[in-house]
Design brief:
It is built from twelve helices and 20 strands. With about 475 residues, it is an alpha+beta fold. Helix 9 runs antiparallel to helix 10. The longest helix has 18 residues. The two termini are about 30 Å apart.
Length: about 475
């Protein structure tokens, strides 16, 4: 397929005029999500057909019944269940953390405070023989350090207690989050922002040392990770590069474009190491996505002159025409003075409610620089999502690279995210949806719900055990 870079362009529409009516209840919010999805999401038009349409209608009726008896404050769970039915990582409930000052002050008076300290956590972990993987001390790379310990007041739950605060509104000992382990091995996290706004998040542990929230990344400090850890202890999103014997390991936890210049400098500074290595291993476990071009400096070390075919090649990207989509095209793809944007908007305006092919982008000469070792391994897991999957596809197409691990999240069928309100007076929960489809033939040839399968399946849980297994499979020497 012709792949459009799935940069998460999280541009919220300009606030609508405030109406005089009351804030919507849960049933109205759910109906608003349904309307916006059906109006703007290409995946609905391409995939919700026949028997799947019957299942969709039944799911909505069931959730509408729940919504009718669910308070507005508890409505997130209903909305989240609805969008998760589509199994598309780029379709989600966006949770705003805006609070007015009066509400923020009210919430500060209801903070739970404990006697948990960093010292007591260290003592517990030293003495305990059976601890949950999430227990320990974590940092978010922004000054906040949290101790995750069992909650004495709730069975099979944990609490995240501040041991180093990132703001004066949260004191040491305050409970910042409540955590429950799910049946799938992941976690549900109710996390308070700096201003005390509540976010309902799902979390998963990757390579033992990363806790991936959506959004958010925490790095484990205690129990201490092996040395070297492959994760920057002060900022878990920051890329790292480690040489061990004949292997260079590049770890990318995020494709956040904030770190693009840092990564470019990191690769440039280690050109000699990369060029002389016997093996290159790119660790994408738990990568949260962002902008695919962020990892472009690594492509000369992964790509090859000859190309392998993948199941995802061929097809033409399309965009569903709607007023919100046209507004997104005007601001999301560059100035409307460009020929590409003018042609795209013209096509969308001429075909309301239809899927229209994107104009051809100006072609550029293919990259011809191929450097580094001829033994390259890329590690993936279920948390490898969005922009990082573009790098996975580059590895699948290369004749010198192999992809190891688990299938990825499968987010590239529908890329490039927009966020919209579902009601003029709703500022708390908004809809995030992908604006493009990479082919009008989807779900044929797609990855939604399945992910990108690796060349070789290997266990991915341990930080270094997976690296050592891939080193063994890649073999010694060039």
């Amino acid at each position: 397929m012709t792949r459009i870079s799935p940069m998460l362009l999280l541009a919220i529409l300009a606030p609508a005029a405030i109406s005089a009516q009351e804030s919507p209840d849960c049933a109205q919010l759910l109906a608003g999500f349904k309307e916006k999805i059906e109006e703007n999401y290409a995946g609905f038009h391409l995939e919700v057909k026949d028997g799947r349409r019957d299942a969709y209608d039944a799911t909505f009726r069931r959730l509408a019944s729940r919504a009718s008896t669910t308070s507005r404050d508890d409505c997130y769970i209903v909305l989240d269940d609805f969008v998760r039915w589509f199994e598309d990582p780029h379709l989600f409930v966006f949770q705003s953390t805006r609070l007015d000052s009066a509400e923020a002050r009210r919430r500060t008076q209801n903070v739970r405070v404990t006697d948990v300290t960093e010292r007591s956590v260290r003592a517990r972990l030293s003495a305990a023989t059976n601890v949950d993987p999430i227990e320990g001390i974590w940092n978010d790379g922004r000054g906040l350090r949290l101790a995750v310990v069992p909650d004495p007041d709730a069975l099979r739950r944990f609490m995240a207690v501040v041991v180093t605060s990132d703001t004066t509104t949260w004191s040491v000992g305050s409970v910042r989050a409540s955590i429950a382990r799910g049946a799938d091995g992941g976690y549900r996290v109710d996390l308070r922002a700096r201003n005390h706004a509540l976010q309902h998040l799902r979390a998963s542990i990757h390579k033992d040392v990363i806790l991936r929230l959506s959004p958010g990344v925490w790095a484990r400090e205690l129990p201490p990770p092996p040395v070297p850890s492959l994760v920057d202890p002060t900022n878990p999103r920051r890329p790292t590069l480690v040489r061990r014997g004949g292997t260079v390991i590049v770890s990318l936890v995020s494709h956040d474009p904030t770190y693009a210049s840092y990564f470019d400098s990191l690769v440039t500074a280690n050109e000699a190491e990369l060029g002389s290595a016997d093996r290159l291993i790119v660790d994408l476990r738990g990568n949260e996505g962002g902008s695919s071009w962020m990892s472009n400096p690594l492509l000369p070390y992964i790509a090859s002159r000859d190309q392998r075919a993948t199941p995802y090649d061929g097809g033409t990207a399309v965009m569903l025409s709607s007023p919100a989509q046209i507004a997104y095209a005007r601001r999301g793809f560059g100035p409307d003075t460009s020929a590409f944007v003018r042609e795209l908007i013209s096509r969308l305006e001429a075909a309301p409610g239809q899927l229209v092919p994107l104009p051809e982008s100006p072609s550029r000469p293919p990259d011809t620089l191929f450097v580094g070792p001829d033994r390259v391994g890329v590690i993936t897991d279920r948390g490898t999502v969005s922009a990082s999957e573009v790098l996975v596809l580059a590895a699948l197409r290369s004749t010198r690279a192999q992809v190891f691990g688990e299938p990825t999240a499968g987010a590239l069928d529908y890329p490039s995210v927009n966020i919209v309100r579902v009601h003029p007076d709703e500022r708390r929960w908004l809809l995030g949806y992908p604006t493009l489809a990479t082919s009008a033939e989807l779900p044929e040839g797609g990855m939604r719900g399945r992910g990108i399968s690796p060349d070789v399946a290997v266990p991915v849980g341990g930080l270094w055990s997976a690296i050592e297994e891939i080193e063994r499979r890649l073999g010694a020497g060039n």
